[in-house]
Amino acid sequence: MPTRMLRDDAIQPTEYRTWAEAERRFARREKDTRILTELLATVPREGLREPILLGVDDLDHRVYVSDGHHRAIAVRQLGAPRFPFRWCWIRAYRVEHATVPFPHHLLADR
Fold it and tell me: What does pTM read for this prediction?
């Protein structure tokens, strides 16, 4: 997935209103800063050890980072062209891990 899609109007952060808010929050918390510092050091050499998990809401087709906010911020800050990911449907009463290719058309207009 192109890293440029990790922006507020395309692939959104789940727990934060904006990516800037997530970055500010991580900068204020020692544990988050430590995780991000490690990622910024290791990702250029080793890549991401764990892909970012994207969730697609089945009602409004909003795409967001379901797991991997620290990894997403690291690849954004590093200017990585792409990032590895997995994805799942977020259904009303369950999470359904995808067995088909990601629906890229959901991001086409964004």
Answer: 0.92
Are 33 and 85 in contact, with CB atoms under 8 Å apart?
no
CA 56 to CA 102: how far, in whole Å? 9
Which residues pair with residue 13 across a beta bridge?
Answer: 65
Split into its structural domains, the chain has a count of: 1
Give dist(CA 40, CA 58) in Å, integer: 33
Strand order of the β-sheet with 52-57 is: 11-13, 63-67, 52-57, 85-90, 95-97
- Domain span at residue 52 reads 3-107
pLDDT tens digits, one per residue of 9-34: 999 999 899 999 999 999 999 999 99
